[in-house]
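User: Please fill in residues for this 226-position structure.
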């Protein structure tokens, strides 16, 4: 049985600071990995890094299905890499781009049983959306000096279910004005509203009420929502 892994990466702007995110949907629980590059990198390098970090999580011989929304990554491994290697890692125009990452990806892929699957980004796949949210988190944390992080207790995101009885859990109620702000912010970030809210809640829990209150108090005037 293959373990499903989602990998994603990106920059804002491109080139610019970048982040990568990985969701490992293991049978015994989900593992989330993320990190970033605070300097100047590219979308493609971050996409490759995400795939590399996902494969590095597993020992040699592991059976994995790697799901990426980057055709550049998937086709590099499944279609182009053999020809590049036969020509000494060169193309008709010169050395293969991102050759350092390509060689590392090839090394890891060769030592594992990997099925590569392209998935369409921002198409409602919750684990793909979660990996995308981790990209933004990784880029944000890298700017603060934290280049890589890991969460081994993350729940697997589940499809939306029917409303539960009050005794089964608390519902999050958002007023209309706040809901519109969340929708606009999610669109600007390139994520779903659910993913944005999920990431915001995780950040609040990581920082704690005291740190959040301090940051809010020190926020320059005129930067509030509205």
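Assistant: Residues filled in for all 226 positions:
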């Amino acid at each position: 049985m293959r373990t499903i892994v989602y990998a994603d990466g990106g920059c804002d702007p491109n080139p610019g600071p970048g982040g990568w995110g990985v969701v490992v949907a293991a049978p015994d629980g989900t593992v989330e990995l993320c990190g970033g590059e605070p300097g100047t990198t590219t979308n493609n390098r971050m996409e490759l890094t995400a795939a590399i970090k996902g494969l590095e999580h597993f020992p040699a011989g592991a059976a994995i299905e790697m799901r990426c929304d980057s055709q550049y990554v998937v086709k590099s491994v499944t279609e182009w890499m053999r020809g590049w290697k036969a020509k000494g890692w060169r193309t008709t125009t010169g050395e293969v781009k991102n050759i350092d990452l390509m060689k590392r990806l090839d090394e890891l892929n060769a030592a594992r049983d990997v099925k590569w699957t392209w998935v369409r980004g921002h198409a409602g796949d919750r684990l793909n959306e979660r990996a995308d949210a981790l990209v933004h988190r990784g880029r944000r944390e890298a700017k603060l000096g934290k280049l890589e992080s890991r969460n081994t207790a993350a729940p697997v995101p589940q499809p939306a279910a029917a409303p539960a009885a009050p005794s089964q859990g608390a519902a999050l109620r958002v007023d209309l004005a706040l809901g519109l702000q969340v929708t606009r912010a999610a669109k600007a970030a390139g994520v779903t509203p659910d993913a944005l809210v999920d990431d915001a809640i995780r950040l609040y829990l990581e920082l704690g009420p005291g740190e959040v209150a301090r940051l809010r108090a020190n926020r320059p005037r005129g930067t509030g929502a509205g």
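For context: The helical segments are 43-56, 71-86, 99-110, 126-143, 176-189, 193-207, 209-217.
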